Amino acid sequence: MARAPLVHGRASRGMSGRDPEGDKDAGRTPSARNEDLRMQPTSEAQRRSSIIPSRSCRIESVAEALEECASLSEAASIVGSRGRTKDVSAHYRLFSTRSRSKRRQIAAPCESLKRAQRAIAGLIEEQWIPSEFSAASLPDPLKDAAGSHIGSRSLFTFDFAGFFPSTVVSAVGKALEREFFFGSSELAQLLAEFCCLDGCLPEGAPSSPILSEVVCAPIDVRIGDLAQSHSLTAVRFLDDGSLSGARTTELVCRKAGGWWIHPQLENAVQPYLLNASKLRLMGPKQPHSWLGIRVEPGGLRVRSAFRKKNASMLRAAARYGAADAQAAYEQAWRKPGQGLCFAHVLRGRIEHIGHIHGKEDGVYLQQLCAYRHALGASHDLICRCRHRRPMDRGCPTS
Questions:
Q1: Confidence (pTM)
Q2: Which domain range does residue 235 map to?
Q3: How many distinct structural domains can be found in the chain?
């Protein structure tokens, strides 16, 4: 039975309707009593807001306990005893981000829930051994995954449609039971429900990537076996997959009005579906690219469009200043006041070039020098792209 909301400023009454400690409203004017009545919660949202602090305290205690536990079984017991699944959904912040082709819905957990999910992800990572066909098994997942296709005659790349929304809570629970709990479905389901939102993995939670890796382990095995039977190289990076070699057309090829995909490949990716708009087949006379990286015979290069956008951002910062560039960036890509720094975003993009090309690359050094000049950073670092002298690695801005 639902409890009736308490009236602000009044104590609970007994069966007789009289205050057991005396009528506290005696002697008060009607206007004063009406003022108290106006202050009580009147809507369901307001009543829920008065409950959230207690839920936050509960999630905080769960996070503290999970950070101290040493096993997944202990973590599941903590979640089952203290973390009610029905309370978790109130601790997400929903918003959308815009990319080149679509708007992406993000469900970001609150700080306490984020700590709890990060602790669970850490316990899984300590015990989880990823498949050899997953990029998670590589020392540098992004660079090594793209680098595995260097020198290939043809490259086929594909994408799982609606990856996180398609990873349902039942699949997560079965995967945890299969890999860690060995028949204890109740404990596995507790952790799965604690890390899911609305019946699927939320995009934005720190536990979602590693849980998706566990769910996709059988898929990696099936795709890997299929690739080996056709002398192909297979790599999966989250929801992006790739096959390369001389015989890719045995599994996929273009035809009039669409694609022909081998039934074995379609069955291998089940329960996911391939996103038809993201399928790419690049032959020997076409440039190969995957994960935003060009796979050239001589090595890996960042796409020219990425470098040109960096150059455009650098020119804007140099011409209009950091403050105006920040305002224009927020207006174009994010809502104002979300704390996203234009300078940090630009520096991260430049460092991505250095990561793929190497720290001695001329493009990276040139954009790094322009960044420091445009945004007023320290010039103690002597830029090789301008002075042809070694860089001082002790500079705080390096």
A1: 0.76
A2: 141-161+216-300
A3: 3
